[in-house]
Records
---
Amino acid sequence: MAENNNLMQALQTLIQSETSQINTAVDGIIESYDAGIASVKPIPKQRFVDGTSLDYPVIPNVPVMWPRFAGDVAGVKGPVRSGDKCLLVFCQQAADDSDDERRFSLTDAYCIVGGFGAAKDRAAENDQMQLYFGEAYIALTEEGKLLINAPAGVEITTPETLNKGLLTTEGQLSYQSGMSGKGGATINGTVKATGDVQGSGISLTQHTHQEHDGPSTGPAK
């Protein structure tokens, strides 16, 4: 019976020793990032059967993964900075197909960036879906309203913009390449123009009036 116990203990120790070399997923911290490749320091320690532990080394050349769709022409990404948290996932085989025997190696890691938890300073906005960066954000409300807050401004590059609803601006409206439209216009306030104003082809500055039983007036000065 003692021999059986010793054999079982030896087998258990062997299995634990082997499985301790299997890397699956650990939390990490970005040490550096460049063009989609990061160096990552795993946060926990490696723990061994004999009770000892050892810091993981910094893992270089780790591809950073982002959600991508539609044959990689659509996706979501964010800015990556040193100190950002991430999840390291280790492949069950060599990621570059260079070694058929390699399994769950530290060299075959992928990095999923993102610190998970409560969104800082945004816990009260529980009725919105937000994409934010600092004070700037785009939000969708439960009622279907789109909210945009851009402290540094909004820049749109597009050949054409179509608005199918009422457009209201609380600030000054300015343009650089002229303005045209259909329908009437109602303005409550003074209209000023540095150039001429025409109505039905008649110039405001050049037109004349025929005075009753008198001569025509000259153009406006």
---
Amino acid sequence: MNHLKAKGIFFLLLTLYCAILQSCGGVPEETSSNETSDKVFAVADILTLVAEENDITRTLYTKGIVGAGKKQGLKFDEDWQDDEVEAGPLPALFLRGISSDIRKSDVPLGLYLGSDFPINASNKFQGKQAELFAKIKADQKPQHFYEEDQKLYTSMFADLAVAAPCVNCHNDHKSTTKTDWKLGDVMGATTWQYPSDSLSYKEAIGVINAYRNGTKAIYNAYLEEIAAFKIDSTKPQIGNKWPSKGFYLPTAEVFIDSVRKLASYHSLEKLLLADTKKTTKTKDLVSR
């Protein structure tokens, strides 16, 4: 069995595992007078988990779609949704599309991308986040804190220049305030927010699904834009092939499946680890 197939099986097991928990009424409740709730995940852990999946998604999109696609003649533009522009979303706009779809869902998850040298001035970090971003630039370590003004638990993660298209676009953009970006630089930070300090299994799965649904929504929006291109020669063939093979684009299902195969093993490990800790704690309390 190859590595990707194994990860696909782990994602299936993750789905079945959560379904079993829900059908059985969730994890066992503690019988001690010191009962705890079903909130088994610290919010920082879940925001870290979804941020890591976002890194995988954006790297795959940036390198596998934008970088390889440009070599085949595909175009990407900040005005990609304008009727007169036949192009796809740049990586930052791909993330914005995910964020927009999450806001439409019932999951209270916030996501946005900021920087100290943003192309769009509204994305410049201010106040406490600007101070914490200075630390992220220095050591690339995540920052977790409670945002008093918004009453939200917040986690910030370094956003690195992982591919040449990111560097070239930012250096050459007409509105850029920095023209010497290079590969590996901390270009900004993804900021994630949630209103509670802990999550249940159902809420954790909801966060993961909200992110994945957002990814699928923006990718489908890109494919719909391609379908509306007026010039047939600018339309790549949509199927199971990637731009590295020619003038192709994968379907949304193929793209999302690739992300899941790369990310789901890690997600399952974290969920199972939390369940193990919960079960051990329950046994300890019951035995007293």
---
Amino acid sequence: MFSYPKYKKKIYFSKMHGLSNDFMVVNCINQDFHPTSITIKELSNRYTGIGFDQLLLVEKTHNSLFDFNYRIFNANGNEVEQCGNGARCFGLFLLLKQLTNKEKISVSTKKRRLIIYFINNNLIKVNMEEPDFKLDNIELSKNILCKNFSVNILNDSLTCSIVSIGNPHCVITVQNIKNAPVNIIGNTIEKKSIFLQGINVGFMQIINRNYIKLRVYERDVGETQSCGTGACAAVAVGIAKNLLANKVKVDLLGGTLIIEWKGLGHPLYMIGPAQHVYDGYIYI
């Protein structure tokens, strides 16, 4: 009978998704798991690994203000600041694994505090804190003094809006997202030297004041089926420009989110589903 070498470590995980944005979730509270970027790349490979958009780690917190620590890694091994769809899956994971019995929990991310509310078994609401238009928290190679700026792409000038939802987003309003060259423009903007750590790029089509359609190019990943923080960023920009109401339905390729925001000085809320796919283990 074949046996794995003793240096291999058995790691238990869950595969989850939020509107088809998929994750490998690992409980690091009772497992010693410290993956390198090479390991994450191998695990994220959809042909030879588990396959996922992001790796989510559940960790203990040493701060009494929080219940857990939440870490996010993109498929290429880079740690990122935030993931909205991941936050909902993170919350559902805690329930399924009986790591909490609270109706709401507070978790710390790389740069923000999130409050996760459990509405029912797979519908979860997240307080994403207030969107940041000041740009102080976005690493830029030069100062941008206004919310809007222009970039020249494909011999055309595009007007973009920048906002941070704990991670950086560039939002572009388009007439029809079906025709938007998401990967070409997204990749070009992400690689712009002005964005030192890259940036996510959202393409928003406004249907009416309560309804938008959205496609998102995520940095390090490319276009994904959905992006929770991208939905938050697009709605925040729309409300800040008085183009949208305070409660907006967002249709992404993978499904629908509800975003609520009363405007400056208030936190933004994201409401949507999370799904558990399967549990497994792998030898590292």
---
Amino acid sequence: MSERVSVKTPKVRALILDVDGVLLASPHEQAWRDALTGLADPGRFTTQLYQDQVAGKPRAEGALSALRALGVADAQDQAPAYAVRKQARLEALIQAGGVRAFPDGLRFVERAAAAGLPMAVVSASRNADAMLRVCKRLDGGALLDRFAVNLNGRDEGPGKPDPWIILRASDELKTPPQACLVVEDATAGIQAARAAGALALGLARLNDAAGLRTAGAHRVVASLDDIAIDDLTTGHWTESAS
């Protein structure tokens, strides 16, 4: 019978964290689903479709990708209005308190901060800042203030799986990609990390560990509580079958 054993890997000198699905349980998926009314059956917009076709992508790209996946005949023409409706619905859900921080995400950020690891947050969403300000750290401060680099909502470059945003975060952290650990819950994010030459940690909150491994994650966990900061900084955080 095989078992998992620790192996030596490059030491982590900085963290690059996705927002939706890693730090926050946001209402993005619900907003995309709700905005479909009149275009397609909202019930067909599953969590799997969201993860595969929308997560990590800029809004316009995600709208078109979702409509094509759902077989909407005039997807190209319908996508701009769909994206606008989604944004309006998302803002309403945020105002209604529809966003919360994952407890293990908060604990992970605090442990990393205590160890002196510089951190960046990256997201294609322009709403990420607002959500990170609403969510509080364990000491009561805004979660957003815990990060040295914030690339949320910047649209100068392409969305994931393109490595642009990872490379930009690495540059602003003044840390080479090979020493940055990217924490992602979507396959597009893992692919972006690997394309940038960065280390990749998959967070399988949705029972999707196999897909994250296939995308190239160096390790996959179900909770960030499973990661010891000391292991990151000493290079003993990945696992290998033996």
